[in-house]
Structure formats: structure tokens, C-alpha cells
Specification:
The complex is a heterodimer. Chain A has four domains: 178 residues, P-loop containing nucleotide triphosphate hydrolases (Rossmann fold, 3-Layer(aba) Sandwich); 74 residues, no CATH class; 162 residues, 3-Layer(aba) Sandwich (Rossmann fold), CATH 3.40.50.300; 65 residues, no CATH class. The longest helix of chain A is centred in the middle third of the chain and has 18 residues. Chain A is α/β, with parallel strands linked by helices. Chain B contains 14 helices and two strands.
Chain lengths: 547, 337
Amino acid sequence: MTDVVSISNLDVSFATDGGDVVAVDDVSFTVGAGEIVAIVGESGSGKSVTAKTIIGLLPSTATATGAVLLGGRNVIGLSGQRLREVRGQDAAMVFQEPSTSLNPVYTVGWQLAEGLRAHGKYSRRQARATAIEYLAKVGIPDPDKRVDFYPHQFSGGQKQRIVIAMALALGPELIIADEPTTALDVTVQAEILDLLRRVRDEFGTSIVLITHNMGVVADLADRVVVMYQGEVVERATVTDLFSSPQHEYTQRLLAAVPRIDVGRERTPVAPAEPVVVADALTIEYAGRFGSGSFRAVDSVSFEIAPGEVLGLVGESGSGKTTIGRAIGGLTRVTGGSLRVLGHEMRGVRERNFSAVRRRIGFVFQDPASSFNPLLTIAQCVAEPLEVHGGGLDAATVRSRVDELLEAVQLPRAFGDRFPHELSGGQRQRVSLARALALRPELLIADEPTSALDVSVQARVLELFSELQQEFGFAALFISHDLAVVDTLADRIAVLYRGQLVEEGPSAHVLGEPEHPYTRRLLASLPVPDPIEQRERRLELQSLDHEE
Amino acid sequence: MAQRRLLDRLPVVHQLRQSVGLQRGMLVAGLIITGVFVLTAILAPVLAPYGYSQLRDEDGTFGAQQPPGPQHLLGTTVGGYDVLSRVIWGTQTAALVIVVAVILSIFIGVLLGLVSGYIGGWLDRVLVVVADAVYAFPSLLLAIVAAIAISGGQSSFWGGILAAAVSITVVFIPQYFRVIRAETVRIKSEAYVESAKVIGASPTRIMTRHVLRNATRTLPLIFTLNSSEAILTLAGLGFLGFGIEPTAAAEWGYDLNKSLSDVTSGIWWTSVFPGLAIVLVVLGITLVGESLNDLADPRLRTRRRADSGPHPTADVSVVPGGTVDDLAGLDTVEHRP
């Protein structure tokens, strides 16, 4: 097999305000023709930087040494015209966020043609014909009509298809896909992975796939390169890697991936007066002048008993976050009824609700922005104590803060640090500490782990369930990831386009899903096991044929 | 956190250490000019050979339009004042006007911007319309109207300074207002403000503790840029005859006005030196402001290239962005050689 890319002894370092930082340290690997190689690693492991080096996309602050041979040419040191020749023709790139990698003011046909005309002589008509041809190849319906559409007229998955079409149109030997499905929902992710597999099979294109999702790796890759802190720690074929991981880090990484386990033991919750009762809850956002309002949540009914964890699952736009915000009093309820700790939230006034707030804790999705950057960790955690504590003196507050930090397994000394000095996982623990400061009866966790790496996520989830047992609060756990919800929730509610399609005990919902959407959601979730994943893929395809 | 020395955390010093190459040169040049300006203003009574309104010494009157010589290093004006002394005393007037104007406008502008941005609604709409209206008005014209209204046609030292300062304030409040309002609106939707809300913190507490401190990081930039504009407005007022009388204080714009007729008759020293003073001070302060602006934005900030060879560890946490008043501190910032 001839190698499309061979990277040997690659070092990349960046000049930053904090001195030089080595992002990639002595990395070597090759990609054969028609092969899919996955580069796996956590954020900051240097996987994206390695991939960007292949097509010379490093920023000016970076310095690369070593050799990256692409089609017999060393890319490092190329610049200007010669680098442009390499880009597109020898290797093309598919980015993470499809909505920002397309220019919103040009039609997709124009953007496809732009790439073609940069690399060869095409008349306007030829370029357009080629654009339509490739749109059809990546599965865009009505390509001859939709070639004149603008990016905003496509869905996220379709946009990613178009980006892949743009990459394909120049017939590169290699496509670099940098987290191509991270921004997409699981069901769409399955479609895009399918498309990438077809691209390899039909066009013989090699693919370098960068991802942190072990399920995606198991689904698509032939060989895997595991990176950790800028170094390659393991190279293996996909079956070997999952069946017998060699390096300690790989083993940890695989162990941390949450899996759905229907047989998990769950302690039943004693029946009691529920803390949250939603009855035909409807939330509408006012539309722009002239257009109707947008119904984000459409007559949803559920209950949360004291001490129970309800997992709320759904794709983006399904209204799950809106429900969480409504319970926290951040979004107005426009129809039906929502009772939180005995208070009706429809038409609630802030003055009457502020007393209830001390009984509710909230953990936000993004650990980077949920703390005031100018306050220390101790000040952040102390905030609820100061607001509701009724004049506790500073020493008492500080000792409570220390207790809370200990409860979330952080050293006391962290109290004097600032949020940016903590890692994402540590910040999310502080977030938990702050939410639990007043020992709330209800905790709303809005995707608390979706911004974290897998191994960090595993630790935070573990901590969450320990704390839940210790403090005994009821929780609404919002997530898009069924496997994550499965590790925590007593009951699971599945949302689809604002409607509750299925609700019940976790084992039931995951074990014998009734609604076709839940079944589809379950089947789309790639499992970190290449053999099992192959079977599931067939299952998903048969589900598609049924519809 | 690692105890970073206080010196590094001061706004301008921090930026100075961060900068390299041309950006550093611009910043240093600006700082030197501004430093000389401030020192001259403070030491004016010591430095100036004569008073700003002095027309005679023990040898008799100075005489009008004397060329530069040993008696009067930069000559005398048409009114018989010593040019060098007028230029030096003028720095004091300029500095005072900057201080008074900026203090007045910063407090009102920040307060209005914060309240308007956070509370929103009709109050916000009214304030934005008013600010836009003031913006749309020619600023010098507005300053003239304000100067007349305040001084009532009289001219005294403080009256003149206040007139100039307040008229500049009227023009500047909308700038501070807009910047702080925009920041407030952005910060209002940040997760940490929402998390303060779900905790149950009162709006006043959220505004002062969470929004205000995070919204003021761009202020040093506007501060420096506005200072140079304040000098130009003051000089403009003086030039047009709405400034301070020569007996009350020295003012460059006034001197320029009086030297208009000299220019055509070959008397260059009366106009060149006050004009040069205005240009230099505005240049200096603008250089500082623009450099701070570039350094505050990580995309515009130039860095040393990474050198090849042995490297420090890879796990240094990289803090994105630097800010002007980064009190939170970037403890990873190392001393640059």
C-alpha cells in the first residue's frame, strides 16, 4: 500500500504570552491509500494541530519541524502558491462547525465552484454542473435546485454534507475531518459517518479523522493513533485497540466512555409529594413582527419526586434546556402549568419567587463562562450564602465554602484561585459546590458534562451521583447523550421537537423503547466497540428502511 | 494563585511587558511623550522662566514679537508674552481640562450605560436616542454652546477650565455610555450573570458585583483616546475665541489664534511652538491609546516567534486574551528578556 501522507518526527510549538508551548512532540505516523486513520485524544492533546500541519494551516505564531510528506512533497516550509496547490488537490479539510465554515452571503453552488476554479479551468456552466454532481453524490435532495440556495437554508447535517462535497469536488487523495460530527446531533452524526464511509469506499479517498468520541472511532476508523499531551502513546488497528489497549492512558480513556447498561441497579424512589409537576407545560418564544410565535415546548407533562433524578434527553432544539430554564425561573411559562416546590411558575413574579430560589441549585453547561472571571473561587461559591445567608460573618462563610470544596473533592487552597486557573472539570465541580451551597431540594443540571473530555466527564458524573446520594436532592439532568443520562437517572424523559415522546424508568426506556424516535436515538449512538458497532449499524439501516 | 508582583499587574506596565517589536516602540514613544507632558504640567512653576501673564521684568517690558534670543528663548507673542513660558504653562491647563473632563464624563457615562444596558426597556431606548442625538451633533458646535452657557461670557481660570471641561463632557458622555452599555448587554447574557440570577441575587448586586467590574475593561482605552480629543477640543475652543483669557491661564489654542496674522509676516515662532505642543501631546496620548488597544486584542498582538530548540513543558495553561486591567491576572505571564 502506498502512503498518502507520512509524518515523521513532527514537532510544533507555539509562542504564547506564557512562553513557548510545545503542542506536538515527535509525532510520526502514516496514512495509506483508502485508509481511515483516527487521531484520538483529549482537548489539548495536539490532535488538531497535527492535522492542520498536514495542509499548512498553522497560525503565524507556530513553528513546525520534522517532515510531513503529502504526495511526495514536504508540506513544512511550503508557502504561497505551492501551498495553495497542495490544499484542495492533495488534501482537503472538513471542519467541526459546518455553520461557520460556509460563507453565509454566497450560494453553496458558488462556494463549490470557487474551489474548482481555483484549481483548474472551468467555465461557469461546467463548474455549476460539477457542483450539482457532487451535491447529488453527498446526498443533498434536489441538487439542481438547491445549488442556488444559501447556507442558512440547509440544516446542520446538510451543511456538513456540503462541506464534504466541497472537499470531494477537487478529487483529493486525503480528507482531513476535524471533529466532523461534534457539533451535530447523534442521529445526524450517524448519517455523516455513513457518508464518510461511502466517500472512502466509492472514491478511494483516505481520511484522517480527528475526534474525541470513541464511538465514532469504533464506527469508522481502520487504524487509530492515540495522542496524549502532544505525544503519540499508541498506534493500533481499530479492533486491536478496543480489544486489547496497550498503553495505560488508552485503557483509562476506554474505561471512561459511558455505556448504556440496562441491567444497572437502581434504588426505587419512595413515593412522596413531587417537587416539580409539569402539566401540559407550554413555552412559546415571541416571534418577530408579523411571524407567529415559536413553540419551544409543547404541552409536556412530567413529575420529579423528591430524591429522584429525571434524565431529560433530546437533540438540539428539542426544548430540553428551555424546560430547565423555566424551572429555574429564567424563562416565562406561557401555557399549561408548572409547579416548582409548590409554587406555580406561570405568571410568577420575581419578588414572590426569590425565596424559593434558595431551594433550587443550578449547574450550567459551559464551565468556562459560568463564573465571574474577577472573583475568586471562594467568592463565587460564597455568593448564594451571602445572598440568602442573612448576614453570616466572613469566617463562617469561609468555613462553609471550605466544607463545600471538600465535598466536591477539591483542595481548600483552590478557594483563593481564580476561575481561569482551573481546568474545565475542576470548574464544573466548583459549579456543583455553588449549586449545593444552600442544600437545595432540587438541582437542575443543564448538560453539565458536554463541554468536558471523556475521562473528566466520567469523574464528574461519579461525583454527581455520590453527592446525590449524600445530599438526597431531586435532580433534573439535561443531556443529549443517552449513555450519560443512563449512568445517573432513575427515570428518563425523551423530548422530540418540543414534545415528550417517551417517559419511564431508565431500564424500560433504554431496554424496550416504544417510540420510533427513541429507538432511532438509541441505534444512532455509536458504541465504543467496533464489532458491536457494525451490528448496530445494520440495525440502524433496517430502522431507516422501515420508515 | 502565584503571587505576581504588583508592578506587573498595573495596567500600563503589564502591557509594556507584553509588547514586542514595533508595538513596543509605539507604546514606549507614547509613554515618554505623555510622561514629559505630565511632568511639565506638574513642574510648570519651576520650569517656566516667566509667568503666563507676565509682560515685563525688572528690565522693562518684553516687547511684542521679539525673535528667539537669549532673553526669550522662543521669542515673544504679539501681545508681548514669553512664548516658552506660555507653552509650558499651557500644559497645566491642558492636563487640568483632561482630568476634569474625563472624571465628569466617566462617572456619569458609566452609571447611565450600566443602568440602561442592564434594565433595558423604554429607559434604554430613550437614553440611546439622546446619546445618538448628541453623537450626531457637531461636537465643537456643542462645546461652544456649552462654553457660552457655563461661563456666561466671563472668563476666569476655573471658569474657563470648567467651561472647556464640561463642554467636552457633554460630548464624551455618550461615548462612555455606548461602550459600557454594549458591554453590559453582552455580559448580561453571560452564564455567570444567569447563575447569579438563579441564586437569587438582587439586580443591584448583580450590576455592581458582576456586570460593572467586567464591563470596565475597555475604559483605559477610551480614556486615553478621549484625552487626546479633549486637548483638541480645548485648543479648538481657544482658537475660536471661546477659551480662557491670557490673564487667567495659558492656553495653546488662544495663542494660535493670536498668531494668525504673524504667519504671513514671517514671524514663525509664535505659531509653531504652541502648535507643536498640541501635536506632540495628542500624538503621545494617541500612541499610548492605540497600542493599548492593539495589545488588548490577542489577534492584533504580535508575539515573538517560537524559537526552535529545547522547550519548556507542554502543560502550561494558556490563558486566552489579555485585557487592559486584567486584575484577575495572568499568572503564567513570564518575564520577557
